Amino acid sequence: xxxxxxxxxxxxxxxxxxxxxxxxxxxxxxxVVFLLSYLLTVGGNLSILAAIxxxxxxxTPMYFFxxxxxxxxxxxxxxTIPSMLARLLSHKHTxxxxxxxxxxxxxxxLVGVDCFLLTAMAYDRFLAIxxxxxxxxxxxxxxxxxLVAVSxxxxxxxxxxxxxxxxxxxxxxxxxxxxxxxxxxxxxxLSCSSTQLNELLLFAVGFIMAGTxxxxxxxxxxxxxxxVLRIRSAEGRKKAFSTCGSHLTxxxxxxxxxxxxxxxxxxxxxxxxxxxxxxxNTVINPMLNPIIYSLRNPDVQGALWRVLMxxxxxx
Length: 315
Description:
Elements: H1 4-11, E1 14-17, H2 27-54, H3 61-90, E2 94-96, H4 97-130, H5 135-138, H6 141-167, E3 176-177, H7 184-190, H8 196-229, H9 234-262, H10 273-295, H11 298-309
Parallel strand pairs: 1-3
Antiparallel strand pairs: 1-2
Helix pairs in contact: 2-3, 2-10, 2-11, 3-4, 3-10, 4-6, 4-8, 4-9, 6-8, 8-9, 9-10
């Protein structure tokens, strides 16, 4: 005979995701908006990637990291939005327990790599501006690939840790998630066992995964700012800052939405505001990245135009 603990642990086999809206009349509008957002995001990021691959002028460390970031953005939105669109079409809001944890794992894996890649890009700008003579050796192809590989390894460890930790919780009561994808705060609210250790783990690992990279980014740009201010030419200062502006904008949006999304873990009830931050994490950030990086970059704009028009890159 099973104990009460064993029964409770296997009682919940699926969750119900309420989605973005509960009003049936609004669902077609939501479907069209997010389908267009998904297509725009995938198309924009793949265009950036194609431009970087075919344009020899963009075969530099900064654009190598940007190409990897574009792949991550496509993956991040693909983990969450297509399944949400499928539920809107089928009117079926249930998601199996295993599928929920799988989505959780891949979402945190991709976001984690994103976090470390942004740090690598800040380090690249630091070397290019503060130590230009050593740039070619300290940011060689081997170093670039090593930074990407380490980013994936650390993010994989983080995602696996949270997934295994959440799988030890018991879900035996309500199984309705007021969100459009599975994430830690929402699952913590549904657990009928204590989540204190899980929340401590999230904060501890989050400090390493997000706090340390953010500190490195701030330190890098503090040195960059000091170096740029020593440039006597106003045109030189403007050019140096322009190479960093896009990256800083992406960092601000990425960390801003992430902090607000996870800082409310201790609240008694999660609200629709969490869906808004979820949209930023899964849709807005990946959609804005190609726009931000190409908006004030004539090299990327020219490469994108040639890719879209089917023209050969300039020699």
